[in-house]
Design goal:
alpha+beta, single chain, about 15% strand
Length: about 250
């Protein structure tokens, strides 16, 4: 019996079926997590359980987390996914919800967020109102690079259309710590920052965004992987062109 998990569920007043729904698994699977002491969920499920119960993963599964303790630069790599589409929507939602200082979406279109995150525009409005800085770095829908990538992708919903859809909602919030800039320097590398967490997805040749291998990073050191990607985004932001007239131009 996994007593720490059972107690945490009782304290959070969350049933087996409720936890299963939040983690995207079958109720029987949650039952096995509780009754079979040596059974350890996949990393993404441990993360989801920890978020749902408000309990640290090391308390719920101490043996598993002990094996994952890292001391080198790779300790900033929290999780890896072979495809961006394999990165759970619940992880994105959790990172967006927890962010207090900064939300930076530096994908070429960022369009998938509007599809996968319910009431995404409302979440952005709430974050901006609470003082969280929200930024979008997107490709120029009228640029030669965008047209070239559209030919490569050859999909019905063009890149330029996806970019314009992305910018429609944030435009309503401009001036409230929400800003957007055009840039071509991230055409094949998407970086999404949530305070000290980050999701990075390099686009492979002749593939679309949801097929990109994806890293979940968490900042643990100066000049580590997290900081290097963060500096990359800041440089692109500084060089970027404001989407809306009257932008203050702050980096």
């Amino acid at each position: 019996m996994n007593e720490p998990l059972r107690r945490a569920m009782a304290q959070a007043r969350i049933s087996d079926s409720q936890l299963a729904e939040r983690c995207g698994v079958d109720t029987k699977t949650v039952g096995r997590w509780i009754t079979q002491t040596g059974r350890v969920p996949h990393a993404r499920h441990r993360w989801a359980v920890s978020q749902a119960l408000g309990e640290d993963e090391s308390v719920l599964w101490p043996a598993a987390t002990k094996k994952l303790v890292k001391a080198g630069p790779d300790r900033e790599v929290a999780e890896v996914f072979p495809y961006r589409s394999a990165c759970p929507a619940s992880l994105w939602r959790s990172l967006i919800t927890k962010a207090e200082r900064e939300l930076t979406f530096a994908g070429y279109t960022n369009y998938f967020l509007w599809l996968e995150q319910a009431r995404f525009g409302t979440a952005l409005r709430r974050k901006a109102s609470a003082g969280c800085r929200v930024r979008f770095l997107v490709g120029d829908p009228d640029s030669d690079l965008t047209r070239s990538r559209e030919k490569e992708e050859d999909v019905a919903l063009s890149l330029s259309t996806r970019i314009r859809v992305t910018l429609a909602e944030p435009e309503k919030l401009k001036g409230h710590d929400v800003d957007a800039r055009f840039s071509s320097g991230h055409a094949y590398l998407s970086v999404f920052r949530f305070d000290d967490d980050m999701i990075v997805a390099p686009l492979l040749t002749h593939s679309v965004g949801h097929d990109a291998p994806t890293l979940h990073l968490r900042r643990h050191q100066d000049d580590g992987m997290f900081d290097r990607f963060a500096m990359h985004v800041e440089e692109l932001w500084t060089r970027g062109t404001p989407v809306w007239e009257g932008s203050d131009g702050q980096a």
